């Protein structure tokens, strides 16, 4: 990627005939990009801390404006200056230099692509009135689409290649982040028009941009508040809220859903023998297994300690539990074969022989609301633990509950069988 960007930059540099043209725009865009970073550096640092998924840094206001208005060589230089300063001030050391180099290369390629569109379709002069003809607007819209397609596509491809287990959200980012990128590029287009008409007008871009920058932090703070810090899963409160909403939606449509409660067997022994840091690594590895074994739309949460819960919409509403049991058994087998590699002061450490006990229940067969379904699944979980652990139990094995009467212990079964 970097070599491709360098080769294309070298090609455009050799074709540049006048370095004076666009020099004022280059200086203005670079200065405003640096000023924007300096003013919003605290917000950007916090955004980088609270999320690991791709997020829009709003610097494309300046880089896209450069691609529309400046010669390609100057547009590339704008991207390098703005992104390099942003990394130096806000992203070190969380973003390694090689990742920043790759990200800058994708922006450079996006700028070259957008600039090529403007040069081949439009006049490259956004100072004229659009009423004179639609070509300037057509060029701007196509340049916007090409810019975001090249930049986002290359980043998504890199994430998918480096992490085959990545979810759709991790690869493509949240939908609102993508909408934010489009809005930022639109603001970049208006910036280019303002700079072409009257350079002083570009100062008016900064206030709405800074307000937008702070506003987008709200969703990420909400996401951080709903996420378990050790595993990255939903915490108990957030999972309950999401699950309640999902079950209400399921009830309105007459659909079905299922719940699994999982408990990591003998987790205290892991902490006692290997330490709490090793225990945290085990929990993180277990969370990765759970995410990889369910669908993107399924809700996976940590209830606390070593207990986890999963809501699976559209699964097993008839009380037979065949699909639900298959999912639970698949998870149980994955955990049984899980090994966690740890680096300790005494050398490498491998934690193995892990297991989970699993209880399951379905909606609406086993309960009319989330509380009732969780109660049935929790009773099935304790039946699994009494049966010897590393076992899956479904509510199908339990007698129907009468008010005030606890579940009886189910018939004994062989270890590991449903």
Automatic annotation (TrEMBL):
Name of the protein described by the UniProt record: GGDEF domain-containing protein
Stored Gene3D superfamilies: 3.30.70.270
Domain GGDEF: 255-397
Transmembrane portions of the chain: 26-43, 64-88, 100-125, 137-162, 182-212
InterPro entries according to UniProt: Diguanylate_Cyclase, GGDEF_dom, Nucleotide_cyclase, Rev_trsase/Diguanyl_cyclase
Family annotation (PROSITE patterns): GGDEF (PS50887)
Origin species: Pseudonocardia asaccharolytica DSM 44247 = NBRC 16224
GO cellular component, one term: plasma membrane
């Amino acid at each position: 990627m970097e070599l491709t960007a360098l080769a294309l930059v070298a090609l455009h540099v050799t074709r540049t005939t006048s370095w004076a043209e666009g020099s004022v725009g280059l200086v203005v865009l670079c200065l405003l990009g640096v000023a924007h970073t300096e003013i919003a550096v605290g917000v950007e640092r916090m955004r980088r801390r609270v999320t690991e998924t791709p997020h829009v840094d709003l610097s494309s206001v300046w880089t896209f404006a450069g691609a529309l208005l400046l010669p390609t060589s100057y547009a590339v230089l704008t991207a390098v200056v703005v992104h390099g300063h942003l990394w130096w001030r806000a992203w070190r050391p969380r973003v390694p230099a090689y990742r920043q180099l790759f990200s800058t290369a994708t922006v450079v390629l996006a700028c070259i692509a957008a600039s090529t569109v403007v040069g081949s379709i439009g006049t490259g002069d956004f100072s004229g009135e659009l009423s004179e003809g639609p070509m300037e607007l057509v060029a701007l819209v196509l340049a916007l689409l090409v810019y975001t397609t090249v930049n986002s596509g290359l980043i998504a491809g890199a994430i998918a290649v480096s992490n085959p287990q990545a979810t759709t959200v991790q690869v493509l980012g949240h939908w609102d982040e993508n909408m934010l990128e489009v809005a930022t590029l639109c603001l970049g287009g208006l910036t280019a028009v303002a700079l072409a008409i009257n350079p002083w007008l570009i100062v008016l871009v900064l206030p709405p941009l800074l307000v937008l920058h702070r506003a987008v932090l709200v969703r990420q703070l909400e996401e951080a508040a709903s996420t378990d810090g050790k595993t990255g899963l939903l915490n108990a409160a957030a999972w309950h809220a999401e699950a309640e909403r999902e079950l209400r939606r399921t009830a309105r449509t007459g659909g079905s859903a299922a719940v699994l409660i999982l408990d990591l067997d003998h987790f205290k022994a892991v902490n006692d023998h290997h330490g709490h840091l090793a225990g945290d690594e085990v929990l993180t590895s277990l969370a990765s297994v759970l995410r990889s074994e369910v669908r993107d739309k399924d809700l996976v949460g940590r209830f606390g300690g070593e207990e986890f819960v999963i809501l699976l919409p559209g699964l097993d509403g008839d009380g037979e539990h065949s699909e639900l049991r298959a999912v639970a058994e698949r998870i149980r087998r994955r955990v049984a074969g899980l090994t966690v590699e740890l680096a300790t002061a005494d050398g490498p450490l491998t934690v193995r022989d892990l297991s989970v006990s699993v209880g399951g229940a379905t909606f609406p067969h086993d309960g009319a609301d989330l509380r009732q379904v969780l109660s049935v699944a929790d009773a099935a979980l304790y039946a699994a633990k009494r049966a010897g652990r590393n076992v899956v139990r479904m509510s199908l094995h339990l007698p129907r509950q009468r008010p005030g009467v606890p579940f009886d212990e189910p018939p004994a079964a062989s270890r590991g069988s449903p």
